[in-house]
Every structure is written in structure tokens, then in C-alpha cells.
DNA sequence: CGCGACGTTGATTTGCCTCAACGATTGTGG
DNA sequence: CCACAATCGTTGAGGCAAATCAACGTCGCG
């Protein structure tokens, strides 16, 4: 995907949610830096501070934690039209606890945290856009917590299929297991019974 | 607590986070409605649409879901200086899936969702305030998801003690169990081993 | 072709749940 | 002010869902 199409995708995304003139977007565009990622390439490693927000324009990324036993726990999938970053590290400037890498060859547009204050002042509509984004992310995460507390392995998987149709087609099954908090073996057994 | 002190608490809370003149707050104040809640009194019942945000000025509330088997799953504790509501219902105008009630005799300041648009326009700094609020809530929830995926019962409890010191003193143990996704019996056994 | 990544299946273990009983504390109405 | 009920936390016995450990077949890629 050439860069023009990537910018276009973000512009369309934003204009569907907040009022933003083409002129303002053209102006905003200078803060974006396109980047290509190969499958398995990392955008962020745990230990590094997270300095950018990434808007995915092609492919699919994920964020995950890695505990002392080497177990992965996937926190978020980010296909096209999604933002991904480590908000904790981004906001606190502390070293990140998360990894972010590409599940497929991907393209992202990077927005530096260092520019965010300027952007909020220059384009106040971004303040609103990110409020709306964080609100909907909050609702989705709360729903996920509720699912984790109240559902069995099978229910969690079916809930996942309904909530993120399409993801199951493109993501390895053991990664979905790590998102649901199951072992790959358990997920395999759960699927057999459906 | 008389109403003046309640308004003062919210003003201090806001002014610690965003620039807001006393004059603007005095103006903003007209949108607030104080409300007293007795222990166990509900602010919201599942099935009703959620129409207000509540800022707790005294006491402690919680939000929780109730599944078909009658099991409670606590999603949030809201002691003084916290907001509580069902964001999903508030934003979508759909019937709520959550209950909100008071764990102690409490006082809240209510902000109607119907007024929020006006407030964002009249006091743009609220757009920023709620963006910051939602960001930090998002970070906390993601941390909670990570804990739910990767920790054992005992680790979750110790993590809870560290993250919310003070809550354990004021909330019944079986309610904490429902927050952690444990049965009261399991939490009791976990505690014995510490 | 050969190797690594991936998914499946089986045998066994285990962490937490369920069910049941009980004592302590709180609070409520007569 | 007391008697009784409800709430709350604890403990024990037994069960179960998912994890662990191990082996194996397939696919895709270098």
C-alpha cells in the first residue's frame, strides 16, 4: 500500500468520528510517519519506553505481555483501522511492560507522544477524538473483564468469535488462546466440541 | 457532609488535573445534583438505561454484573474522589447490564449525560479532563486484564492489596472475592496462607 | 528436502469450585 | 434491652474444568 492510501484511510477514519476539514488534516499529516513492518517484527519491546501511537493501515499487530515463565498473554489485536501502543508507558514515560509486534506484514502511521500536546492545542478536535476513542476502549475492556470473571473457556471463545469476527481467520490459534487466557491444548479441545 | 464540602471536593479534584477557574466551576456547578444513598441503596439497576455520571464525595459505591446463576461480579469500587457509572449504557443509551449500589452510606454528585454535550462546548477543558480520566481508566483496566490472564488466586489478591490499599478495610470480603473472580471460600483459604 | 511452527490428542495432575456445616457478628423488631 | 434473623467468614470433603506433560502428524518455508 502506498503512503497516500494510508493517509486516506486515517483521514476517513477520523472524519467519520469528528469534524475535521481536509485542510486541517493536510496540516496534521506532517506529524505522521509511515512505517512498514514485516511479520514478527517488533514495534515495541518490553523495557523500552513507548514513544509513539501507531495507527494500523495494513496488516495486523498485537500487544502482549511476557511473564517470568515465558508465557505470552495477548492484550490487544490491532488490524487495519485500529490504534495500538502501550498507553501505560506512553503516559508515564516508564519502561514498557508490553511487546508489540506484527502478526502479518503491516503498515502503520506513527504519531509521536512528544507531538501530542501540540496537536491537542492546534487541533482541539483531537482532544474529543481521543476522548471518544478511550471511552469506547474502556467499555470494551470492561466487557472483557466481565467475560473473564464470569465465563467458561467455551463461552469465552464463542464470545470472542462474535465480538471479533474475521480475527480468527488471520491469527494463529495459539495466539487466540493467549488472548483468552487458555492453553493452546485447551482451546483445541474447546473447538472440537462445537 | 453538607453540599458545599461536596462541591469543594470535586472542584479540588478537577483543578488538580486541568486548568479550571473558580468562576467557571461556579458556573459548571449548576449541572450537578447532589444525592444521598443509604448502604445497599441502588443508584442503577440492570435493565434501566444509565443517564448520569456520579462523582462520589463520601462513602463507597460499586458496580457489578449479575449473571443468570445469580453470581455477582464486581467491576469497580468507587470510594470518595471517583466517578462511577455504566459507560456502556451511558454512551449507547441501551439498557444497562450493570448494577450500581452503595457499600456504605454515601453522597454523590450527579451529572446528566443529557448535559454533557453542552458542558463540553461551554467548558472545553472538560473534554480534556475526561480524556485524561478515560486514559487512566483504560490503563488500569488493561492491567487488570493482564492480571486476570496471568496470575493465580493468591497473586491476584496480593496485587489487589497493593493496588487498592484501604479498600480491603472497608469492603466485605466476599465482595472482594467477586472482584477478583474467586469464590468467598477460595479467598478465605488464600488469605489463611499469608 | 528438512526443519520449525502449529494444531491435535491422550494421560495425569492440580487449583479452584461446589456443597455442606458451623461460629461470630451485626442489626432489627417486639 | 433482649431474642432472633440475617450476614459474614471459615473449614472440611469431594469433584471438575482446565493445566501440564508428552507424543505425534501436518503444513509451509528457507
Helicity level of chain A: 40-55%
| Structure annotation, total helices of chain A | 9
Low-confidence stretches of chain A: none
How many distinct domains of chain A? 2
User: What topology, given as strand order, has the largest sheet of chain A?
Assistant: 1-8-3-6
What's the CATH class of the largest domain in chain A, please? Answer: Mainly Beta
For the largest beta-sheet of chain A, the strand count, sense and barrel status come to: 4 strands, antiparallel
Gyration radius of chain A, rounded: 18 Å
How are helices and strands ordered from N to C of chain A? HHEEEEEEHEEHHHHHH
Q: Which structural class do the helices and strands of chain A define?
A: alpha+beta
Determine the oligomeric state from the structure. Answer: homodimer
CATH architecture of the largest domain in chain A: Sandwich
CATH fourth-tier homologous superfamily of the largest domain in chain A: Jelly Rolls
Task: Provide a descriptive summary of the structure in words.
2 copies of one chain form a homodimer. Chain A is an alpha+beta fold. Chain A folds into 2 domains: 3-133, Jelly Rolls (Sandwich); 151-194. Chain A is 48% helix and 23% strand. Chain A is built from 9 helices and 8 strands. Chain A has a 4-stranded antiparallel β-sheet with strand order 1-8-3-6. In chain A, strands 2-7-4-5 form a 4-stranded antiparallel β-sheet. The mean pLDDT of chain A is 95. The A-B interface holds A 65, 67, 71, 73, 75, 87-88, 91, 120, 124, 127-128, 130-131, 134-139, 141-146, 148-150, 178, 181 and B 65, 67, 71, 73, 75, 87-88, 91, 120, 124, 127-128, 130-131, 134-139, 141-146, 148-150, 178, 181. Chain A binds a DNA duplex (30 and 30 nucleotides) through helix 9.
Amino acid at each position: 500500500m502506498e503512503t497516500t492510501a494510508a493517509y486516506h484511510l486515517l483521514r476517513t477514519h477520523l472524519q467519520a468520528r469528528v469534524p475535521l476539514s481536509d485542510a486541517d488534516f493536510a496540516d496534521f499529516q506532517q506529524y505522521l510517519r509511515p512505517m512498514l513492518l514485516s511479520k514478527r517484527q517488533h514495534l515495541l519491546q518490553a523495557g523500552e519506553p513507548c514513544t509513539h501511537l501507531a495507527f494500523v493501515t495494513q496488516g495486523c499487530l498485537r500487544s502482549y505481555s511476557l511473564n517470568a515463565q515465558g508465557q505470552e498473554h495477548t492484550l490487544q489485536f490491532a488490524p487495519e483501522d485500529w490504534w495500538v501502543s502501550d498507553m501505560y508507558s506512553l503516559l508515564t514515560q516508564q519502561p514498557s511492560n508490553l511487546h508489540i509486534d506484527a502478526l502479518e506484514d503491516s503498515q502503520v502511521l506513527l504519531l509521536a507522544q512528544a507531538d501530542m500536546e501540540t496537536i491537542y492545542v492546534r487541533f482541539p478536535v483531537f482532544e474529543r477524538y481521543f476522548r471518544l476513542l478511550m471511552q469506547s476502549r474502556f467499555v470494551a475492556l470492561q466487557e472483557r473483564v466481565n467475560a473473564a470473571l464470569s465465563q467458561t473457556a467455551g463461552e469465552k471463545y464463542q464470545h470472542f468469535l462474535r465480538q471479533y469476527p474475521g480475527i480468527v481467520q488471520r491469527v494463529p490459534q495459539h495466539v487466540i488462546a493467549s488472548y483468552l487466557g487458555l492453553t493452546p491444548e485447551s482451546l483445541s479441545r474447546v473447538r472440537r466440541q462445537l
